[in-house]
Input
Amino acid sequence: MVLCESGAEEVKNCLCRPDGILDGICCANPPCPDFWSWAGLAGVAIMVSAVILAFLYMWASIFRDNNLNTYVKQELYELVVTIILVVFLYSAVAAMSDITINFFLPPGLYPEDVPGSTTIYEAAAMYFQQLDTDMAVWLQENYIINMYIDQIASVTPYARPLGVGLVASPLAGLASPIKQLLYNMSVALSVAFIMNYAQLAVYIFSIYGLLNYYLPIGIFLRAFTPTRRLGGTLIGIAVAFLFVFPTLYTLTYGMFYNKDAGPLVTFKTMVRGYVDDVFWLDRSEQLDPFKYGFTINDDGTFIERKNAGWCGTPPISYDNFEGTWEAVSDSLLEITVGYWGGTMTYQIRIVSLDGDNLAIRYLYAEDRAQAR
Output
């Protein structure tokens, strides 16, 4: 599922943007209902309610009915609230296409390759698409690993030189719990994969159905006393799914898929982070205030941003520590730098380096390389 381009005529295989729905370009037959035409109906409903309340107020004044007078004042208050609510909701809907991720996320938490001008509705859809891609890769990797484990478990040596001997599968017992673990992983990933599509379906429905029908009908019903509760309920559901739902998934997208700290970018990065001892860093104009990094200056000075104290439990406080560096070889650096408890010395082995990415390995104590 991809996002429809603005002004697109073919919308069968893409997710409509809010501005496309409001402009009526995301429907074929029958045509889209006009959201803005509901404003006139809401105005008529408010006027009718005002006339009814005015009549009831005159009746209460003529017959000196205090209970009815109190009731009319309460309903008049509700009518004023409805007017304010209508103005607010139509203003909010008009601004939907201008609600971008830079309203909620700092630049350091933007999802990878997603600019700050991306709307929260686009970001939420991209989050579901990214999850779809990653879960598919995880399922494939799980299947491949399971296949090899099954082959290993099936190895059966035949040691019967004279018809007497041993026929056994020595690795079957070892592979059995691993296969069960992989099976459980496959089940969990399959359920998560289906749930991701279910949430995408709900999201598509919320963008189209709630914006075209439930929200305007809720506004209309909110203007009348007998249907005020039902109208308020529909408005609450519409606001939650049109504004809160995309915002929460945009924040989730930023937390899990930002280019600097996202733990779920790809399956490859997960394996690289948990299996390999190579540490990967990206080039940046300045040190991120919320994560580890370092600066190597031409004058031999070294600035390392790391834990400001001994505690490593999040939330972590970071600080800059000054030090020096010396080239032991073309790919080996000797580092002397301060830390919260004093001064430390270690080596950095450069594994790979390109224009934007640096792969290094830290060498401490017994791992230190002595050759120049």
